[in-house]
Design goal:
The protein is an alpha+beta fold and about 250 residues long. The chain folds into three domains: about 35 residues; about 110 residues, YycH protein, domain 3-like (Lipocalin, Beta Barrel); about 80 residues, YycH protein, domain 2 (TATA-Binding Protein, 2-Layer Sandwich). The chain is about 25% helix and about 35% strand. The protein contains four helices and 16 strands. The strands form three sheets. Strands 1, 3, 10, 12, 13, 14, 15 and 16 form an eight-stranded mixed β-sheet that branches. Strands 4, 5, 6, 7, 8 and 9 form a six-stranded antiparallel β-sheet that branches. A hairpin with a 2-residue loop joins strand 8 and strand 9. The longest helix is centred in the first third of the chain and has 33 residues. This is Regulatory protein YycH-like domain-containing protein.
Length: about 250
């Protein structure tokens, strides 16, 4: 055996292994940095309130402040709460792969591509999705619910709607997530809260009428299960538990 050559091969192998391990460590650190919330967008008094109340933010704070209009919509299916059985059940793990989920259920639910999965509202035996406004912003409180049993999606309910803008109303600049969060921290969130999700969407109270109205709103979900909505234009705060605007 040529020991000199074997020694060189081992050296190169160790160098390659170190490079691979080094890259993996760098990639892990980068992902951790990307996932860590940047609290510098919060005002100093808000950060002090977080410390005093032991409030933690485990979600990234969005920086977008788009101009969005209010919308109106109406329900078009009176049987939207009646479960519909699927002709062909779908392996429930597909819920975590949007493309495969749409492909797997497209024959049974043709418009499923205009919905987004919402892990915040998941419950025992069901996955919840919301329709998207402009293909991007979820319309909270309007649901497509997928029911599963033994790891397979077997049925669903869909609140089918038609969305339209309200008259000639133009979009308005949405309140920033950091300002909305600051208001919650200082005035509404209980001690020891952990904010696990922050998302911009549409929210509106449901009325017993044909026309429904929804406005842009930030949704803040806590690890405790409590959810707060902050209206994107007025800044009013609504607790999902009470479904009433907080003064």
């Amino acid at each position: 055996m040529d020991w000199s050559r074997a020694k060189n091969v081992l050296i190169y192998a160790f160098l390659l292994l170190n490079l691979v391990l080094g890259y993996q460590l760098w990639n892990d650190l980068r992902e951790q940095a990307d996932e860590s919330p940047d609290l510098t967008s919060l005002a100093g008094n808000v950060q002090r309130a977080m410390d005093n109340k032991n409030i933690k933010v485990a979600a990234a704070i969005p920086t977008e402040t788009p101009e969005l209009p209010k919308i109106s919509y109406r329900f078009v299916d009176a049987n939207g709460e009646k479960p519909m059985m699927l002709d062909k059940t779908v392996y429930s793990k597909l819920i975590f792969s949007p493309e495969e989920l749409v492909s797997g259920l497209a024959d049974s639910i043709p418009d499923i591509g205009n919905y987004r999965y919402d892990p915040v509202e998941d419950g025992e035996g069901k996955f919840v999705m919301h329709p998207l406004v402009e293909g991007k912003y979820p319309l909270f409180r309007v649901n497509l619910v997928l029911y599963y049993s033994e790891q397979r999606i077997v049925s669903y309910t869909e609140q089918r709607i038609e969305i339209s803008s309200i008259g000639e109303e133009e979009g308005q600049r949405v309140l920033s997530a950091s300002k909305a969060l600051g208001n919650l921290v200082e005035n509404y969130l209980p001690n020891d809260s952990v904010v696990k999700s922050i998302e911009l969407g549409y929210y509106g109270e449901l009325f017993n009428s044909d026309a429904q109205v929804a406005a842009p709103a930030w949704r803040f979900a806590l690890e405790s299960g409590e959810v707060f909505y902050v209206q994107g234009i007025s800044g009013d705060v609504i607790s999902a538990g009470s479904d009433k605007t907080k003064e």
